[in-house]
């Protein structure tokens, strides 16, 4: 492996950007390709497919054998609100392989006692998200009901193209939220990406059941990501 | 799954650190699997010239053999393609007891 390729690949991985190491198994030469980099021909098609599926593997192109090692960032779940639902969601998200963090500036809610095993930031989303920005491989669930806390995170999530955005609240609450987001300059079509009311409709009643519904919706969005990405590719093609 | 433990044991970050520290490094990668392979395609084991290693390609079944081959690869600079299959009586040391088959690509860094 070319040391320069290794460095480049590690930079991409640590920046949470999707990248692929392409190795020619015939001569051992390799190169790093970032998601969205143009690659012509049949090799380009194979690479685009690998990014969509996230599956690494060997491919034969033009009589040559290549190995494609796809590195997708691990999915992250950012929850705005250190509430009862978040308490139930934290252990479930960890089991499902999600790197979860909770942000809530209300120090009465955000206490380590209530959230022993999860990254907890007792800060405003304005500050916490500056240090660890949202990205396309992050899911965001806002559950405080308080526009002062929720709205900024929602706006950032929409602008960052998070693969999942959910917001707790009734349809009436959400209608008001949509108006506020429009006032911030977001268009109706992008605002429609917000899942509200939050969670798959499983008739959830208790906080733990709502947490199941939210996590299921997050997983569904992540697994459907390839379809959404494919549609975007078609549109831009 | 904290940031710290990820970067501490992440084979590709370890390989870069070792390289920066002046060590000779080989990288082994699972490139194909058949049947019930213990580690998925894309998994890495990194090895230095003294046989220190980080990561895994099989969960322990064939690592010893891969490390020995990797030290040769570090010397010669020629990449190798290794294949490991179902363990039988005689090949117990380097077989996969789970019954799978894996192909491992071993190359020198630099």
Describe the structure.
The complex is a heterodimer of chains A (237) and B (110). Chain A has helices spanning 3-14, 41-53, 84-95, 125-131, 147-160, 171-183, 188-191, 207-223, 225-236; strands spanning 19-24, 30-34, 57-61, 64-71, 76-80, 99-103, 119-121, 138-142, 164-167. Chain A has 237 residues and is of the alpha/beta class. Chain A is elongated, with a radius of gyration of 20 Å. The two termini of chain A are 33 Å apart. Chain A has a 5-stranded parallel β-sheet, sandwiched between helices. A 4-stranded antiparallel β-sheet of chain A has the order 2-1-4-3, sandwiched between helices. In chain A, 37% of the residues are buried. Chain A has 2 domains: 3-71, no CATH class; 76-226, NAD(P)-binding Rossmann-like Domain (Rossmann fold, 3-Layer(aba) Sandwich). Chain B has helices spanning 3-9, 11-20, 63-76; strands spanning 25-34, 44-48, 53-55, 80-84, 101-108. The relative contact order of chain B is 0.23. Chain B has 3 helices and 5 strands. In chain B, 28% of the residues lie in helices and 28% in strands. Chain B is of the alpha+beta class. Chain B has one domain (3-108). Classes of the chains: A alpha/beta (237), B alpha+beta (110). Chain A binds chain B through residues 1-3, 6-7, 9-10, 13-14, 23, 25, 28, 55-58, 67, 69-70, 74, 94, 97, 99, and chain B through 1, 7, 12-13, 15-16, 19, 27, 29, 31-32, 40-42, 79, 81, 105, 107-110.
